[in-house]
């Protein structure tokens, strides 16, 4: 605990704080258990309940080393081909929102999971669940959005499926996209690879997708002009690999549960602590304002085009420059660094010099955001 | 039209019949258009409306040669790996039924689409859409069913996703599975490869899955003991490839829309006619009975473990033996053959010696069967 002692003031406050952190830490070292009797919205929110469902029920059932890694994509080797494969269902409501739509999200979300695995996206499949009575024009618009996003991301749609369910059963449409990509040999990434002194970066301003969805739902009065950040992150990853490939530890796109969930997952997987400087995190003032009104932290708000990168110190500057050079990356920033203690914990240094624990999301303040 | 003239009686009847067939045939040669203002249940039924949605809206939008093939799986080549990739959403109601459940279906259905492409199934992804309030036990049972079916089919689950939607928004659960497989070099299959005199086989008794679902819904009174035929068809395909690889023209699993839809699609894609001997089609008496009560043809009822194979005449006997040797293949049978005229049409020779046109399904007599 040397690192922290050097940074804190009163030994008494530190002792008490450390006992509390010790308790939290012991609880976290255990694999989450799934003990709920019923599924709640929070199981889909990307926070603690989601982790308990995935790590407590799904991963043990399939006894798959690829699932155990809890990565955004699974590795599959076929012959000489080193592939990554990932799937996502999209149930966002409303279907269209400032800056994007479910179709665009369905392509970029899956492409980004491949990119986070260091894999160049190659092909997608598309499975549509349509509600009886859906207007053909609404469907045609999403099909067009999917086609355009796929072209922009450089992936081909190679297979598809369509199901129709009765009126009232799926809220217009759900889309499941699955992607395969080719793992880039420059990428040696793992959520357990983080080491003390590694540098933590984000590729852009955070919280804009979730905020755009909230505004589109008209759930609170705010005239802000915030659009979703949905975009393919492969160009950013490609740039990172070129600039700092051997120094990259791990990449994660900060979707459900936001940047806070990503940081917590990585801290836990690597058994390290993190210290984030709140003032360094790029947030649009309107996103900060909306979050304050709702009483949530922008670090918990979903993004669809922002990644978190953990980089060895010697690669940090090159990584930052690569992110800034990528489309939409002008606001990329170093937001903090990896520490030794307390393992599994993410601490935030606030603008006023205080520190607080940044936890995973509990419950679901904003369901159906992707 | 020589082939048919030789088989029919009165020249007058033949002339009139041929004029009518000519009209149908011209209509069929055109690509289906999607002109509906709204989605109806029939767009998900696997029949004509589904074809119009897929071929009239989806395939043109994505401008993808792989989709143009309208195969069960798309081909993707990555480096030296010759892959097939396919996706399916499962929305079956009820979740459990005699002989299977949604989880088992979700694995076998996707594995079978790979098998039909002549690809050995390698890996699956799993995307769950869960309804708020779903009982954890119900979920755990399906997770177990998925795990068991994956083990039985020899595939690994390599990546997953979970979304939760509000109560009432998805009827307990929907499952989307996507699979990749390695194309077997022995398989040179295409829906447009059928030639006159090719032999048509089915791998088992037809219509049992759809009938089991009907019985499980209690929609009509019948004490029949019919279970779903859900199973992996890769062992049957592997056997076919070993016994008659070079003679195999095309394989299709006869899911939504039944054997009739498969035959019509192949007849249209290859520009050939088919003559099916009704008496040769293996049907369990209880399935025949249930179909008669409902006024539908067992040839239109869904299967989840039956394939249709088109084989060059010299490979037919070996193919039949291979199918009979595969698990669940005891009832495999030759059901008819490929003819020249009228192109795109499937004719059935009834038990009484008459002939009728066997068309694709129109509308959806049985929604949500997979």
CATH topology of the largest domain in chain A: Phosphoribosyl-aminoimidazole Synthetase, Chain A, domain 2
Helix content of chain A: 25-40%
Give the terminus-to-terminus CA distance of chain A.
39 Å
Number of domains of chain A: 2
Largest interface: A-B, 83 and 83 residues
The sequence of SSEs of chain A as H and E is HHHHEEEEHEHEEEHHEHEHEHEEE
Mean pLDDT, all residues of chain A: 90
Widest sheet: strand ordering of chain A: 9-11-8-12-10-13-14
| Overall SS class of chain A | alpha+beta
Strand content of chain A: 15-25%
Description:
The structure is a homodimer of 370-residue chains. The first copy, chain A, is of the alpha+beta class and 370 residues long. Chain A folds into two domains: 110 residues, 60s Ribosomal Protein L30, Chain: A (2-Layer Sandwich); 159 residues, PurM-like C-terminal domain (Phosphoribosyl-aminoimidazole Synthetase, Chain A, domain 2), CATH 3.90.650. In chain A, the strands form three sheets. In chain A, strands 9-11-8-12-10-13-14 form a seven-stranded mixed sheet. In chain A, a hairpin with a 5-residue loop joins strand 13 and strand 14. The longest helix of chain A is centred in the N-terminal third of the chain and has 19 residues. Chain A starts with a helix and ends in a 13-residue tail after the last strand. In chain A, 58% of the residues are buried. The N terminus of chain A is likely disordered.
């Amino acid at each position: 605990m040397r690192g922290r002692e050097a940074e804190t003031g009163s030994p008494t406050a530190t002792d008490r704080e450390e006992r509390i952190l010790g308790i939290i830490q012991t609880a976290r070292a255990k694999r989450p258990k799934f003990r709920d009797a019923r599924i709640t919205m929070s199981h889909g929110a990307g926070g603690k309940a989601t982790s308990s469902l995935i790590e407590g029920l799904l991963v043990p059932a399939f006894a798959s080393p690829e699932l155990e890694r809890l990565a955004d994509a699974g590795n599959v080797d076929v012959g000489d081909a080193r592939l990554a494969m990932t799937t996502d269902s999209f149930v966002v409501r409303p279907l269209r929102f400032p800056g994007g739509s479910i179709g665009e999200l369905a392509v970029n979300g899956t492409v980004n999971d491949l990119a986070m695995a260091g894999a160049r996206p190659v092909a997608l499949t598309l499975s549509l669940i349509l509600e009886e009575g859906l207007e053909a024009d609404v469907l045609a618009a999403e099909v067009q959005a999917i086609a355009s996003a796929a072209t922009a991301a450089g992936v081909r749609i190679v297979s598809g499926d369509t199901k129709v369910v009765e009126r009232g059963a799926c809220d217009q449409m759900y889309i499941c996209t699955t992607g395969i990509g080719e793992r880039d040999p420059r990428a040696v990434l793992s959520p357990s690879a983080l080491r003390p002194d590694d540098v933590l970066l984000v590729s852009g301003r955070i919280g804009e997708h979730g905020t755009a969805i909230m505004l589109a739902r008209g759930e609170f009065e705010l005239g802000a002009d915030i659009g979703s950040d949905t975009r393919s992150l492969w160009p950013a990853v490609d740039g990172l690999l070129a600039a700092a490939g051997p120094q990259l530890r791990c990449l994660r796109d900060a979707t459900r549960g936001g940047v806070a969930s990503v940081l917590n997952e990585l801290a836990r997987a690597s058994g390290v602590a993190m210290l984030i400087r709140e003032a360094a995190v790029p947030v649009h003032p309107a996103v900060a304002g909306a979050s304050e009104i709702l009483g949530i932290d922008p670090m918990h708000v979903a993004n669809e085009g922002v990644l978190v990168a953990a980089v060895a110190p010697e690669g940090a500057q090159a990584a930052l420059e690569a992110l800034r050079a990528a489309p939409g990356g002008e606001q990329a920033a170093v937001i903090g660094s990896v520490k030794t203690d307390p393992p599994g914990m993410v601490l935030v240094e606030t603008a006023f010099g205080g520190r607080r624990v940044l936890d995973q999301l509990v419950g679901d303040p904003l369901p159906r955001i992707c």
